[in-house]
Design a protein that fits this description.
70% of the residues lie in helices and 2% in strands. The protein starts with a helix and ends in an 8-residue tail after the last helix. It has six helices and two strands; from the N terminus they run H-E-E-H-H-H-H-H. Strand 1 and strand 2 form a beta hairpin. Helix 1 runs antiparallel to helix 2 and helix 4 crosses helix 5. Bound molecules: cytidine-5'-triphosphate and magnesium ion. The site of cytidine-5'-triphosphate has 18 residues, from helix 1, helix 2 and helix 3.
Length: 180
């Protein structure tokens, strides 16, 4: 029961988990805010780029389509009724995750935090909130089927643990500048 909830939550959130990591690998180039400042600090900062956002979103959508190709055997192997992704749901999860992260950078700059500064809590959940809000808005039927209350509880409990683990690993192997 708990095992199948965790499997469903992890599977359904994978298209939202991958974009930020893909953006770390792809980032660089022109910042979204074009270097502009607002109230004495950058609007978003150099850590939010067009390339990172586009590549991150595309990576999340591509992953969802890949998962769709293996959803039947994966579900059978795990004995869990895993969801296939509607295209709109996939786009919402991936782009919503990127937007949540961008929104968090906006809040970090407003609170005087430089690029790369940690904001515990926000760093771990910004992309979850963005992805869930976007998927419930853009694909409400799909979202209410998949993200039942127990699945949502597992998502909110599990994501910070996964986020901290992957970021510490990315820092350890040298692909990320800070371990958060
Ligand atoms: N990145 C990007 N575009 C995005 C998100 C991330 O290019 N929309 C890349 C940037 O190279 C960024 C790296 O991924 O430096 C790490 O992402 P993140 O930790 O979110 O950014 P920070 O550099 O820490 O900046 P901030 O303080 O604004 O979060
Ligand atoms: Mg950061």
């Amino acid at each position: 029961m708990v095992g199948s909830l965790i499997a469903t939550a992890f599977w359904a959130m994978l298209p939202a988990y991958v974009p930020n990591n893909a953006a770390v690998l792809a980032g660089g180039g022109r910042p979204i805010d074009g270097g502009r400042e607002w109230r004495g600090a950058r609007v978003l900062g150099d850590g939010k780029t067009w390339r990172g956002t586009v590549v991150g979103t595309a990576a999340g959508v591509a992953l969802a389509l890949g998962l769709n190709a293996i959803v039947a055997p994966a579900g059978t192997a795990l004995d869990v009724d895993l969801p296939a992704f509607d295209l709109l749901a996939a786009v919402a999860l991936a782009f919503g995750a990127m937007c949540g992260d961008i929104g968090a950078s906006f809040l970090k700059r407003r609170s005087g935090r430089e690029r790369g500064a940690a904001f515990p809590g926000l760093d771990q959940l910004d992309f979850v909130v963005g992805a869930l809000v976007a998927v419930f808005l853009l694909a409400p039927g799909w979202a209410t089927d998949v993200f039942t209350l127990p699945v949502l509880v597992v998502v909110v409990a599990m994501t910070p643990v996964l986020h901290v683990t992957t970021n510490v690993a990315a820092y350890a192997i040298g692909v990320k500048n800070e371990p958060w």
